[in-house]
Amino acid sequence: MHKKPLRKSIRLDRWISGWLYCFQHNPDYKAYCDAKQRMDNECCIALEKQHAAVADLYHDWGDIHAIDARSSTQSFKSWYTSKKNLFHEYSLVGWIADPGNYKHRSGHLLLDVPFADLKSVTMENLKRFIDFAYKFRKRAVEESTIDAARLANQPLPGPKYTLTGDLMNSSIGRLLKAIYVNDISSTEKSGKPFTNAELVLRAMRDPENPFNWKMLKHDHEAVAAGTFYNSITDSSEISLIKRHRRDFDALVRNTVWGRFPDYT
């Protein structure tokens, strides 16, 4: 399936930060990393049979569990700098000094561009050729008898790991809310997980919560009277907490297949 290009304004590092955070929470990938460290080949083979992409993911991502996944940290920035080639396309226009040694690659077209005295004339001639090439790309892929012509037009070059869907900067809110809900639910209370109602209260008491929830006078009164949890049983706040807990589980589950953000 063809993937739409991301909007130019998107902060890719924020998305990769979220990807890394969710990947760190995948129990099967953690088990694979641990098995690699102790050289447990039997365990590795079992996990590779269960998850076809896990060996390749480990080769590319490595053991990620000691990294602080927050995009503002030096820990993440150092890791991201070393892994940028996995998430960015660096195919640039370049001069071929020795065409005899050139190897045709998918999504790349080798051209002979004559220079005119005026740059505008050169650019117009180049534009005319590129316009023609794009007009007949589909036909070239399907009908051309020239291997290089088919290869130049499909598939297009791209990074190894791409984000799922046509995402915008506004889409990051859903991801950050899922991560936030996991953060506030990660601390257990007396050995038991927090209820959804307790998570709502924790979020409301946090002035930096991403939902912009606030404790109003009647909320304080309900907490003091012991009726707060019952008062929000069917509230929109409870629904949002449930949604983002489901989101986080799906995000984590699908990272081991190399997909993100995948909410299915």
Description:
The protein is mainly α and 264 residues long. The chain contains 13 helices and no strands. It has helices at 12-24, 27-37, 41-50, 54-61, 74-87, 119-135, 137-143, 147-153, 172-185, 196-204, 217-225, 228-231, 236-255. The radius of gyration is 25 Å and the shape is elongated. The relative contact order is 0.14. The model is unreliable at 1-8 (pLDDT under 50).
Query: Which structural class best describes the helix and strand composition?
Result: mainly alpha
Percent helix among the residues? 40-55%
Largest sheet: none
Oligomer designation: single chain
Strand percentage, roughly?
under 5%
Number of helices: 13
Q: List the uncertain runs.
A: 1-8
The count of β-strands is: 0
Alpha carbon gyration radius: 25 Å
